[in-house]
Amino acid sequence: MTATSWVEGAEAGPFDLEHLPYGVFSTAKDPAPRIGVRIGDQVLDLRGLATGTFFLPWIRPAFHEQALNGFMAMGPPAWRLVRHQLMELLADRRYRDQSATLLTPIAKARMHLPFNVADYVDFYASEEHAANLGRLFRPDSEPLLPNWKHLPVGYHGRAGTVVPSGTPIVRPRGQRKAKDGPLEFGPSARLDIETEVGFVVGVGTELGTPVSVDDFAEHVFGVVLVNDWSARDIQAWEYVPLGPFLGKSFATSIGHWVTPLDALAAAKAPAPVQDPAPLGYLQETDRFGYDLEMAVRWNGTEVSRPPFAGMYWTPAQMLAHLTVNGASLRTGDLFASGTVSGPEPAQRGSFLELTWGGKEPVTVGEGETRSFLEDGDTVVIEATAPGAEGGRIGLGEVSGTILPAKD
């Protein structure tokens, strides 16, 4: 039987004892950001715990920092030890009185970026998404380009424009050119989302040292929800021959909570069979993905439910490919899956796909139709995963509202 928590309202919810995601918060009374762990609708102050003797002496300094990086750099032994201690603390009623004073209701917590982002890499790991874009952009050719089933395609983004959930997104401006039309400069008219899952690196590597595909869990601390906003018209004009640039780098939103990999043990699922078989450095001893059920709400209306379990390229393969040339990892590196899309129309994770290039608008909010994002629109992405004993945990949400472009 799974242990139960003494925290009221935590049981059988998305943030129960078997989840315990990490974040960074502050309060009106204490505006300094500090690390916390979520249990139910409360956040437990780990800085407060670290002022006493609860954690081992070599772990305590990490929880006096204002971001998760110090703790993430300690590696799996520290991650598992702290997780075990926190589960014991929050399950044992003998700790209730002394720990309850360190709980803050989520409604009174101001959430911050959970970790300092070192580098940001975005992949293109969904076969359905890649094929949909191929059909849209190259209708007379094969949907997938020749390299797609041989390596996880990706690009480097801008770490400095990764922002926490709830940060308003200013509509980007840039060059755009319609087919057979004049070159223009101005606000993006085809602003889009990308429903993604991000993986946060804890343990870095030295330059020149590849990471084996089977060493994924030795380096990756946890999972966070991602919305990689995209200006499709700017991207379409600029991306040849070097790939995405200004159409992607203006903002990437991530959730407030980082779910540790150990909390997703019950969510592991067999990944799709790959044909042709990839090169040796991409062949996994234990090939798995994560059975995450995602949902996208546009102005309050659910418009899509992308399934992460069907991603062709796994997180472990992404990490191995990211480092196979000797590129180093740093604590706080974020690599994301790329748009998550399923085989059904209602499982498409971008509005470019969902409205089929704008030709099939969807109804959102109070009966309004949309092809791409308009000023004032709000998008919320959520996800859940199987937990132990048949329950489900929630990965929180990542949200953003579009503001008009600036002159």
Task: List the topology elements.
Layout: E1 22-26, E2 34-39, E3 42-45, H1 46-50, H2 69-72, H3 76-91, H4 96-100, E4 103-105, E5 110-112, E6 120-123, H5 127-137, E7 154-156, E8 162-164, E9 169-170, E10 173-177, E11 183-187, E12 191-192, E13 195-201, H6 216-219, E14 220-227, E15 230-231, H7 232-238, E16 252-254, E17 259-260, E18 268-270, E19 288-290, E20 293-298, E21 301-304, H8 315-323, E22 334-336, H9 351-354, E23 362-364, E24 368-370, E25 378-386, E26 392-403
Parallel strand pairs: 6-22, 8-16, 9-26
Antiparallel strand pairs: 1-2, 1-5, 2-3, 3-4, 6-7, 10-11, 12-15, 13-14, 13-22, 14-16, 14-17, 18-19, 20-21, 20-25, 23-24, 25-26
Précis, in short:
The chain is an alpha+beta fold and 407 residues long. The chain has helices at residues 46-50, 69-72, 76-91, 96-100, 127-137, 216-219, 232-238, 315-323, 351-354; strands at residues 22-26, 34-39, 42-45, 103-105, 110-112, 120-123, 154-156, 162-164, 169-170, 173-177, 183-187, 191-192, 195-201, 220-227, 230-231, 252-254, 259-260, 268-270, 288-290, 293-298, 301-304, 334-336, 362-364, 368-370, 378-386, 392-403. It folds into two domains: 22-112, Fumarylacetoacetase, N-terminal domain (SH3 type barrels), CATH 2.30.30.230; 120-403, Fumarylacetoacetate hydrolase, domain 2 (Alpha-Beta Complex), CATH 3.90.850.
Give an overview in words:
With 407 residues, this protein is α+β, with helices and mostly antiparallel strands. It has 2 domains: 22-112, SH3 type barrels, CATH 2.30.30; 120-403, Fumarylacetoacetase-like, C-terminal domain (Fumarylacetoacetate hydrolase, domain 2, Alpha-Beta Complex), CATH 3.90.850.10. 16% of the residues lie in helices and 28% in strands. The chain contains 9 helices and 26 strands. The protein has helices spanning 46-50, 69-72, 76-91, 96-100, 127-137, 216-219, 232-238, 315-323, 351-354, and strands at 22-26, 34-39, 42-45, 103-105, 110-112, 120-123, 154-156, 162-164, 169-170, 173-177, 183-187, 191-192, 195-201, 220-227, 230-231, 252-254, 259-260, 268-270, 288-290, 293-298, 301-304, 334-336, 362-364, 368-370, 378-386, 392-403. The strands form 7 sheets. Strands 6, 7, 8, 13, 14, 16, 17 and 22 form an 8-stranded mixed sheet that branches. A 5-stranded antiparallel sheet has the order 4-3-2-1-5. The longest helix has 16 residues, at 76-91. The radius of gyration is 21 Å and the shape is globular. It starts with 21 loop residues before the first strand and ends with a strand.
